[in-house]
Amino acid sequence: VLFSFNANPFGTLPITGWTTNWYTQAFNDFQIQSAVRTTVQVALEVTLISTIVGTTAAFPLVRSRLRFRSGIRAALILPIMLPGLLIGVSLLTLFTQVLHSQLSIQTAVIGQSVYTTPFVILVVAARLEGFDPSLERAASDLGAGALQRLFYVVLPLIGPAVFAGAVFAFTLSLDEFVITLFLIGGANTLPIYIY
Fold it and tell me: How far is Cα 2 from Cα 148, in angstroms, rounded to an integer?
């Protein structure tokens, strides 16, 4: 932050003076503005998809009596452990060779969602595991149907975890470089523009 106000054109020591010229140049550069808009658009779409899919997937992982629940959870969390390079190349091959689709912002959204959704699953599942099921039973005893229990009891209580997962997905999407580089086609996000 200090060097961003440094008049030295190399952005290093010594500090030769104070300026806001670098900010003026950045805000007036069309390519940077376009990259920021694309980055925010992708991040918002990824956040929406990851939050919905991650929250929805967390429920059966915690509440169902699946035989291989631990294995399914490990499979869903696998993208966290895989290098971004492997995810990017795999999805690039899928989109171009198997599906024969054009690379675009939407393919980058799909790729980033594959990477960020497990983080949402982990956060929401952790909250659901600590959720007191007697609250739902009490709402049911008072006449609440399944949807009423979901919207008036469950979601308000797990809401902070869903919000935390959404913020996590948004932040990861803003910073994602490798997967995006392989899948975005001709568009630019801010990390790619900086690179």
Answer: 52
